[in-house]
């Protein structure tokens, strides 16, 4: 096991209720015959994350029942309806005391971002102060890697649906950008029209 794999935990945010999808939780959308959350965990593992924490919210019991998430740490976010910020806080909180020195954050509704992009971001991890973001044709996206030195600051500024956006804006000059537009597509599954991206 390499140093990175041991120290960087995958943190999958999968709590959303799919409001614009008629209230279908994104974690349970089918992709390649399995729930999307299961696919997304597979991507993190294939990229080299051996420890994966999954933040659940909408219909968490149904997700637990349907998706095979063996070996993952499942984190319930009772405040999931308040937006992604609460999921990010819950996820980072769950990493305290695990020995993880960085969190690689990915979103359940971006199946176009596969292991190659995630592995590139993972490879840019150096230490607790690392701040790394994938970019797509120069535009910042996911996954994002936060060294442990940033967790408290990210958690403090993560409100509503903004997640870590405000924190990243404040620390723009410190971010290592990793271009992934040649190996991944950063679309979101947000609306009925987007469901065409699923296979």
Automatic annotation (TrEMBL):
Ranges for domain MobA-like NTP transferase: 10-172
Coiled-coil regions listed: none
Protein name, UniProt field: Nucleotidyltransferase family protein
Entries under Pfam families matching the protein: NTP_transf_3 (PF12804)
Signal peptide stretch: none
Annotated TM spans: none
SUPFAM superfamilies to which the protein is assigned, alphabetical: Nucleotide-diphospho-sugar transferases
């Amino acid at each position: 096991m390499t140093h990175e794999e041991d120290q960087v935990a995958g943190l999958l945010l999968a709590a959303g209720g799919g409001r614009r999808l008629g209230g279908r939780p994104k974690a349970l959308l089918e992709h390649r015959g399995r729930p999307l959350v299961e696919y997304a965990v597979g991507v993190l593992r294939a990229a080299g994350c051996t420890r994966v924490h999954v933040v659940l919210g909408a219909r968490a019991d149904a997700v637990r029942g349907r998706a095979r998430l063996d070996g993952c740490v499942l984190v319930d976010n009772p405040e999931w309806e308040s937006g992604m910020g609460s999921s990010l806080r819950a996820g980072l909180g769950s990493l305290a005391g695990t020995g993880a020195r960085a969190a690689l954050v990915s979103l359940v509704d971006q199946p176009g971002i596969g292991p190659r992009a995630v592995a590139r971001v993972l490879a840019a991890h150096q230490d607790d102060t690392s701040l790394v973001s994938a970019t797509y044709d120069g535009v910042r996206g996911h996954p994002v890697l936060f060294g442990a030195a940033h967790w408290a600051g990210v958690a403090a500024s993560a409100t509503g649906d903004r997640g870590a956006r405000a924190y990243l804006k404040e620390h723009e000059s410190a971010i290592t950008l990793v271009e992934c537009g040649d190996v991944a597509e950063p679309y979101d599954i947000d609306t009925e029209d987007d469901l065409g991206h699923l296979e």
